[in-house]
Amino acid sequence: MSMRMTNNLWTLMRRELWESPGAFKWAPITILGLTLFFLVFGLILGSRFDNEMAFTLDAIRQFADVPADQKRLFVTGALFSVSTLFFQVLLLVLVFYLSSCLYDERKDRSILFWKSLPVSDSMTVASKILTAILLAPAMYLAVVIVTQLIVLLIATVYGWMAGINPFTAFWLPASLPHLWAVMALGLLIQGLWLLPVYAWLVFCSSWAPRVPILVAVAVPAVISLLQHAWSLLSSFDMPQLNVGLIILKRLGSGILPSNVGWRVDSNGNEIDLTDVEFSEQLFMSFSNSLDFLFRPGMWIGIGIALVLLAGSVWFRRRATDT
Amino acid sequence: MSLTIHARNLKRHYGSNRAVDGIDLEIPAGRIVGLIGPNGAGKTTALKAILGLTGFEGELEVLGRKPNKDRDELMEDVCFIADVAVLPRWARVWQVIEMTERLHPRFSRERCMHYLQNTKVKQNAKVKTLSKGMVVQLHLALVMAIDAKLLVLDEPTLGLDILFRKRFYSNLLNEYFDEERTILITTHQVEEVEHILTDLMFIKDGKLVLNATMDAVHERYREVMVKPDHVDEARALNPIHERVLFGRHIFLFDGGDTARLKEIGELHRPSVADLFVALMGEEYENRSLAEEAA
Known about the structure:
The complex is a heterodimer of chains A (about 325) and B (about 290).
Chain A: H1 3-19, H2 21-49, H3 54-65, H4 68-100, H5 104-107, H6 111-114, H7 121-162, H8 166-174, H9 176-193, H10 195-207, H11 212-235, H12 243-252, E1 263-264, E2 271-272, H13 281-284, H14 286-290, H15 296-318
Antiparallel strand pairs in A: 1-2
Chain B: E1 3-14, E2 17-28, E3 32-36, H1 43-50, E4 57-62, H2 71-74, E5 78-81, H3 93-103, H4 109-116, H5 132-144, E6 150-154, H6 162-176, E7 182-186, H7 190-193, E8 199-204, E9 207-213, H8 214-220, E10 221-226, H9 231-235, E11 241-245, E12 248-254, H10 258-264, E13 265-268, H11 272-293
Parallel strand pairs in B: 3-7, 3-8, 5-6, 6-7
Antiparallel strand pairs in B: 1-2, 1-4, 8-9, 10-12, 10-13, 11-12
Helix pairs in contact in B: 4-5, 5-6
């Protein structure tokens, strides 16, 4: 890719942030605010029942004495759970963003302005999908990191009050670089894993005459209903492969940090949770995420996504204001 | 001189509706071309084909490129204002300028600022809060700050007041146009552009009815205000149009003997609007009268 193309792509992605600051900037910042509000609220409420915070500080002192691996488990687990809400909202935001990304410009006719610039249609489509799998997760991750640092700072103050060393009790077990790297890799692989779903939304937004999100949901829903009806009528059985279930399974197995080794069998109705233990392995290992790269489903999905994105480019090329 | 637009048998059908039905165009550089036609005559479709916004049949080259294949490359040398109010409504003025600067290699920020200097457009304002006229000023500033070879304007002044319209065209003519550039304009407000045009095209039902330079048009078409006693004589000379104004009969002739025409009345240069009415036929005249009545 030439220098100019890279610059253009970056400009187009910044454009997406300018267009939807609510989705990419204010939504995570609001969650940060809410998280801190409830944390501080909880701490204040706790101190009301806890005379001179004797109980709290005692618990902290005891925590400082537990073995290192348990400390690690607790602190990283707590920090990970702080991030969950962010990434679930991110997924929701992306569904709405992608399903309108090529529709709004047609609706408000600004497509005529965008098409008056020397930017190709494939570049435009690429900027939307890269915003969804790189830029938006990066923004959310940045806010998550800030939230986690603030949570650790609050813990540090409590640690000082309890007279323990906050560094060895909280900061060291948090293993922040590792934690952040796992989250970043997880987000990246989640983006690839969900690429076919994202691409489907972009595809629908590139041609739907109105309410693209409804079209995007209705088409697979109707197909899977027909599939069910057909296989019930023809063989009195449930279909082996159902489009609707495949999409739902993919969405369900993609959300961080729960993209652990849950295996859902092909009937889609049994989830084997027996080998899931609450251990560090659940969220602090790279292999859980990297594992996805070796599933055939990942590459089939990316293949489908590329076809859908090519279709989106085709429609974008022909789209005008009417 | 190289051609800016070259089209041969350009067609665009929507089902059975022939929006553009076999147009031939040869537009060299350094012209200001008016493409005039009634609603639904195929003006916008023809422009969209030229800008690579729609598919077409036939041959079409703009600045040596195929618009339907290489729109993005073509847009380095072509600018268009498709209509008023197509700038992204969510964006702030500085964002629109910055995006254009970063995405367009021929854009000059200084020139854009220069054009915006005398307007009320504020850098931090959102496009949706600007008035229609201010949006056009902003868009025109953006477009004039791009060093392009072809500028396409589709109804650029629709819905604007007369002051804006006058300033719009005088800016265009005085600060932008030169012999390297070509401007292609469609508009309903013919009387405002006729003084700046070098070429005139009439389009009707997807076909070009007239395609000539303004000089040729002025040489070819004559309007004669005929004295009452010469009316029958004038009719015998095959006028292409006749109308009555304050009891005087006004005839429009395509060619004809100048000396003979002078004998029967006063010779005038027909306005583009009158020529339009004459060439587009009774059918359009009647329809526009009906529209006015409604």
